[in-house]
Amino acid sequence: MVEVLQNKNLATRFQILVEIAAMQPNIQQRHIAKKLNVTPQAVSDYIKQMLSDGLLTSDGRSRYRVSNDGVNWIIKTLRELRPIIPLPGGRLPAARCVRRWRAVI
């Protein structure tokens, strides 16, 4: 099975990256926390780790961008999910895919 579906940490990381990609560069951690039903502190911890891992860049407070490595990780994960989540026409924007994926879980 796809690793992101077996690991809550990776699933949350994926969801946070997709939210940042959809709203970049101005997105507040509390907005992400509310949307994903996690604490702002959890989002902060994930963001710090993703900055350290090179999946995100920051231009200051509440200004995050998904890096090239982050985009590549999102695409790789979506390709792994494709056999599990049927996509109309084979394509679906990442944010809609995440909402559909969350409904499955």
**What's the CATH topology label?**
Arc Repressor Mutant, subunit A
CATH-defined architecture: Orthogonal Bundle
Instruction: Count the E strands.
Output: 2
How do the strands of the widest beta sheet line up side by side? 1-2
**Count of the domains:** 1
Structural class category: mainly alpha
Low-confidence stretches: 101-105
What share of residues are in beta strands?
Answer: 5-15%
Report the CATH C-level class: Mainly Alpha
CATH homologous superfamily name?
Winged helix-like DNA-binding domain superfamily/Winged helix DNA-binding domain
Write down the overall geometry. globular
Helix content: 55-70%
Number of helices: 6
Mean pLDDT: 81
Secondary-structure element order, as H and E?
Answer: HHHHEEHH
**Describe the biggest sheet?**
2 strands, antiparallel
Distance between the termini: 13 Å
Q: Radius of gyration, rounded?
A: 13 Å
List keywords for this structure.
105 residues, single chain, 64% helix, disordered C terminus, Arc Repressor Mutant, subunit A
Descriptive notes:
The chain has 105 residues and is mainly alpha-helical. The chain has a single domain (3-104), classed as Winged helix-like DNA-binding domain superfamily/Winged helix DNA-binding domain (Arc Repressor Mutant, subunit A, Orthogonal Bundle). The protein has helices at 3-6, 8-23, 29-36, 40-53, 68-81, 94-104, and strands spanning 56-58, 64-66. It has a two-stranded antiparallel sheet with strand order 1-2. The chain is globular and about 40 Å long.
